[in-house]
Amino acid sequence: MSELPNRIVVFTRSLFPALLAITGAIVLLGFSEPWYPISQWLLWHYLGIIALTLVLGVACLSLGDFLLRRVFRLALPTHERVAIGFALGLTGFELGMFLLGVVQAYGRTTFVVYPLLLCLFGVSRWRLVLRHARRVLRVGPKLGAAQILFILFGVGALALIYFSILTPYNVQFDARWKHLALAEDYVAHGGLRRMPEGWVFSTRPHLTSYLYVWAMLLPVGTLFHRMELAAHLEYLVFAITTLFALPALVRRLVPRADTRVVWVARFLFPGVMLYDSSLSAGADHFGALIAPALGLALIHAWRSLERPWVLLVTVLLAAAAMVKETVAIMLVPIPLLALAVRALTLYCSNQASLRQRLFGTFSWAFGLGLLLTTPFWLKNWLWHGNPVYPSLGSVFPSRPWSPLAAYRFANEYSEVQMWAPTRTLRGFAASVQALFAYSFLPNDWSKYHGARPVFGSLLTVLLPIILWLRGTRRLWLLVAWIHGAIFTWYWVHHQDRYLQAILPLMAAVTAAVLILIFRQLQTVVRASVGVLVVVQLATAADVYFLATHAMAGSAIKRVVDNLGYGHAGNYAERFTIEPRMTALANYLPSDARVLFHEMQSHLGTGREAVRDAPLWQYGLNYCKAKSPAEIHGWLMDMGVTHIVVNGTKSSGSDRLAGEFMFFDFVYRRARFTKDVDGLLLFENPKTLPEVPFRDRAIIVSCEGGQHAELHPLASLVQPALGPLSQPRAMPLATTRDETGVQSWLELADFAAVDADCATPPDIERVMRKVAERAKRGVLPAYTLYVRNDGSAESR
What we know:
This protein folds into three domains: about 500 residues, no CATH class; about 100 residues, no CATH class; about 90 residues, no CATH class. The chain contains 29 helices and twelve strands. The longest helix is centred in the first third of the chain and has 31 residues. The termini are far apart.
């Protein structure tokens, strides 16, 4: 009976201090309100984004846990259940978004209802999961000083990475013009659609784009909030990979490894802190989520290839293949080979029942893998006649396709865009050398960090020490997988950031080797290895602060500036991102379909897009048009309502004839609408105006002295690269006299003047300058002109 009065006394004693604290908080808020109003705090925006990210995380974990328990009938330890379950759940979420896109169901309802429905799969389990999590956190020996130091280092690294994603300017270039742009396009359409121009990214594996579709569906806020939500989703994936998947794999390699500490090994590879290997809303870190989950599933499946485990491995292999082609080449071939070898070994055991079971299991696996990858190959087959479009364009009846497209893909894309060694013995030797040199010789754009290696070399340096360790059979198998993946990576397309997909495997091996060294070897070895780790960290201590971001210079500075805008009262400026594109959207109807001329990035318009950059699509080849009416017909067939030209820039990737045909159409036949900070907006007319078309061009060159040539457009289709780049076509006429050029002005609608030449004055009298064309291959830089006859509205 005495408990109640005691509680009342305790409550009374606590009430007054609590009221004082709350009153103080209210007073402080009142004092700060004139300087930085509470309603304008960025904190509320980030908290909302974090809440949405956690909802997505719960949805994926619920779905994944349900699949593990009810479909695959598997029971796993906590870390493995989270690692594999989240990878399964995220894959299921993305495939669900794909199916919703097929039925044109991208809208606000989908954004709200879809993840909440998935959360219901785990409602009955969450109390049990939370109780088990608390028990896991309480068990285990007390952390020592060194372990606490390691954890603080890891938490600091996670915090630094999180700080950098607080600005959408941190989003990488490729994510802006590929993943997020495709997601924005699908949202504008309300679902999936065929890209009539054959935009190659829409035909590649892009499973992550369906997750970003959910972010772009955010019904409130601006582009800032949608890009930030996408960045936070990637951070969630990164955190689960680091905190759960990596420790689970290490625990399988080294029994009794302390999962509270081993995750820190991921930050022994400093490249993860630097653009563009760090988090920047790309797809590589989504492949990194699948890698350890796949490794764990393979370990479980290896002994007897039981059907549930083989099918689980199949799902993860399909997910890896669907994330990105550079993820697929590193995560799919080696596990497939391992499964094949193991199946062959068991098949040869002369047990009829085992053979029958294996045949049935792998038949199911083949069918399941084929089904799960239909968002890639079946979509391409139905829309483009080629399951791997644009590859094998000469094998399948591809559309759009042409001999010109085949030449471009072979000689101007594959031979130029792909970072790969020559297909010779020397190239093979370089790929073998990369197995040991990949971390010492940077494979990145030189403008980022030059010749300085930043990836991290502990794995390579520690590998020989494994020979002195015991219990390393699984370790060697994982080492073989990693180095097989490195060879494939280097042989196909070797940029450092693509290695992030297998970095958790590298970190797991590194952590396992370090643990075994400290368990099995002498003090002098442990001390030496400790020095090695410290040196690795010390030599890369400044990597996080290098201002190498292609889009932001320094994302850290961008975040600092953005956080400071509130004090300065620049509240709207904090949410500014892609200002030209978002401004352009104000002049476009909601149902517009916009042709972006030679513009890779157009994120922020919120409209369906058609892209004509020659290297990235194969359906718009202006140099094949015989008249402006043919171009108009192509654009009308593709549903183009508006055209955007980025000022007077030209990449030089199109043929000269193609450039002239396009600019003739835009400047002489389309209707100019608006100049939005250098973005020129035109309307595609329903009917073409009556404007004469003269199929002649004047080319002014300085090679062998300044002279001019008169060409028909048909002779100006010389590519800048490849075997057809030489010889140049013969002109109709040649002159070194300005009088001769004057006489051609009544015959020609176009002119190209070598950037090193003086421009004949008569050209500028009758023609307008439309573009400065960059030098490319054998073709010099040109200034391009189109007749200015006043037949169409002009700027």
